[in-house]
Amino acid sequence: MNIFVGNVSYRMQDQELEMLFAEFGEVQSAKIIMDRETGRSRGFAFVEMPDSSEALRAIESLNGQESGGRQLIVNQAKPRPQGGSRPQGGFRRRD
Fold first, then answer.
1. Residue 18: which H helix or E strand, with range?
2. pLDDT tens, 18-38?
3. How far apart are CA 41 and CA 32, in angstroms?
């Protein structure tokens, strides 16, 4: 199960996030999302846990808990929309 973790401390590292979720079962991956331009944390992360019952237990236990001085928001990640819903910036010439 893919888990969204919001309101993550900007100082938290992937390994700390993994250890936090490992208390509830096997963690396949734990990744804090970084800003491409600055290289700094964007304040959210994704954790993948193969066992859905362990994942649900982690969500229930960690949602609303404080970590690094911030109250975590933890829930099941929603699938990304198909078709590239991100706005495409840039200059468009009009003739």
1. helix 14-22
2. 999 999 999 999 999 999 999
3. 7
Residues 6+ apart with CB under 8 A from 11: 41, 68
pLDDT of 34 reads 96
CA distance 49 to 53: 9
pTM here is: 0.82
The H or E element containing residue 33 is strand 29-34
DSSP-derived 3-state class of residue 65: coil
Between CA 69 and CA 62 the distance in angstroms is 14
In this structure, the number of other CB atoms found within 10 A of the CB of residue 68 comes to: 13
Whose CA is closest to 18, among 53, 52, 8? 8
pLDDT at 87 over 70: no
